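#dry-run=false #mode=assembly
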Amino acid sequence: MDSDTIFFQEILEKRTEDVIMSCVKSIWAVAELRLVAILMKKQSKSGIGESKMTKLLSRDEFRESVFVRDRYKCIFCGKSAEDTPEGKLDAHHIIERRLWSDGGYYLDNGATVCEEHHLLCEQTILSVEDVRMAAGISNVIVPDQFYPEQRIDKWGNYILEDGTRTRGELFFDESVQKVLSSGEVLRDFVPYMKYGRTFHLPFSPGIHDDDKALKDCSHFEGKHVVITKKMDGENTTCYSDGHIHARSIDSRGGEDRAWVKKFLSENVCFNLPEGWRVCGENLWAEHSIRYENLDSYFLGFSIWNEKNECLSWDETLEYFELLGITPVPVLWEGIWISKHMTSIHVDLGLDFEKDEGYVVRLADSFHIKDFKSSVAKYVRKNHVQTTKHWRAGQRFVPNLLKT
Ligand SMILES: [Zn+2]
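#status=ok
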């Protein structure tokens, strides 16, 4: 062969090699895309139902599917494992694992990150929205105790419209304090807490599509519980520093809030030990139920200490007495035996023309982390929720006090 032939043959061989390589690459890319498509399909199938919750994965499945979806690259900087000093990438939980009752191993709760970006996510300098966007996740999933429309950070602290945050159930955890402090974001926090989301009892007739219900009553079984009347007003919290807010933590004051604000500021706030808060129902304005015989426009239902523990019911009553707070009416107290409880609303004499339902809580004290398994509600069928939309342009009709 002359040199030209050799030259062209070499080029041809090289070309063939390139073509083969690029074919292999395309086949690999197609296979990868297919795998992603299959995973997505699997997810959307299992997502049919009351929420867009995707399929719960095992820890290993979670890692693997998160890496595959993100093509084994940090979603922020595109580094692969070999590009990082430790030679590894992490499958990051967008919303902290401990906030989920099932561990939160859902594909839509995961993202591939290098160490540097992992830290920024944990420090909440990169928000959960940043992570979802970078990973191309449009299906927002959050643990049951949160409302999907309310912004939270990775650790379950609520983010308010002005960018400040309220303390969530993990706020005081040592590891969380450490990472938030290293990110210098602790200054964004106000010392307040949103009142937790109360789950329905499994047999509560008033469950709506967007409500959350306990799967069973095992948390109450054999325990001493207190059942109080569920009052139809506005959930209100006041603090030892004088701050008072409704569930939504907005600071707007209306005539419907004036009575309760005055009462709490004058009698309660500054008599509380430091860091404590009292939660109760503001019943000044008529919502879905009319009250004409109230002992007070503010009926208290819980007291929380500086460690975020809800006081036992007995201790709560002692403090209520000292502070001049009328408690919500107690309907029943005793040992919870599930099979006897499904019809207790009948024994309690609840009249669903006039009563919304009842709330059950453990008589003992409990930590806020256990709120969802320590308090639950039973709500009448077709009860109209008067939440945020209720206030807009509404003329308030006052309920009446006992004469
Ligand atoms: Zn990165």
